[in-house]
Amino acid sequence: MKKKLGKKKIIIAVVVLAVVAVAVMKMTGGEEEIVNPVNTGELIIADLQQVVSIKGSIEGSDSAEVASSENREISAIYVKEGDRVSRGQVLAVLKPSEDTETNDSYAKEQAKNTMEAAKFEYEAQQLLYQEGAVSKQAMLQAQTAYENSVSAYNALFDTKKKDEKNEITSPIDGTITRVNASVGLMANEIQNNAPLFVVENLDDLQMKVRVSEYDVGSIRIGQTVSISGQVLGDDVVQGVVSRIAPTGEAKDGNNNEMVIPVTISITERNDHLIAGVSAKAEILTAQAQQVLTLPLEALVTDNMTGEKYVFVVEDGIVHKKPVTLGLEGDFDAEITGGDLKAGDRVVLSPSPELADGMAVTDMTAAMEAMEAGGAAGGEEGADE
Question: Quick check: 325 pLDDT over 60?
């Protein structure tokens, strides 16, 4: 199938080339021979941007996984996914265990005994102090011990404090994005060790990406980011690089490439953008406005000397011209040096056989001229 498709593409290319060749022959009266046909691109003045494109996931700016180590049954759940909660709000309640009740009874009995012993000691110290047998300091120490024992005993009957031991609360303000808890389950036995609840701050969204070690050198805090994704349709929202991790981590187990976690704060609101979806971030690392640009497809680099050059077509002859580049984008680069100007036509994907001073036929220019002529003819016909 691939071979058939490959042959089909070659046939189409040959047919197109033949059509252009015939057009050129007609334009030149059929007298000129088509020599060394080439395709060209025009140098233009344009704005140029350098971006690092990378995919990541959207999430809340603050999140918390609420879990419990208590081996106790969940007796009630008060929230569902999508509910907004405040810090300290009760999300669920655990059923007191029999062991807890037994321990409470034992603790109360012990506290009562301690309180009664402290009371007896305090009263004895009072009598001894009145008779001058002990110091005032000794009597006051006994008084303090008795008062503390009374507080400890009463605390065991504090219903509010008792309830707090059984309650699962939210540690942050946010929205419940996951509820893995169910009434009747044990709090510490949720499937796959998942948390009971996940709470996220969805008012401020962020995007976390992992930037290659080869690109992170151009990333800076404060750089602008354009974010797009399927959930956004044709919309693009803006963000800013807010954090770059101080250390890298392995990309995966198959190679030695490292990646650096980078956090992007989303600064533009969009009702379609939600946490949990994937998106693409384009981090603007550099830009140049209204500069002479070159299609990278036209660039040739000498493997021996490292010299960069292009072939410029002038009156059917190619001229090899050195070029110095500045900012490079995905498809074009800024020209910072060389005998080049806007409007020059450079050979795209030049073949190894192309040499300075060689005669060529600019097929791209011929096709553009033919299309322009056809458009002009159509306008004249319409006027008639």
Answer: yes
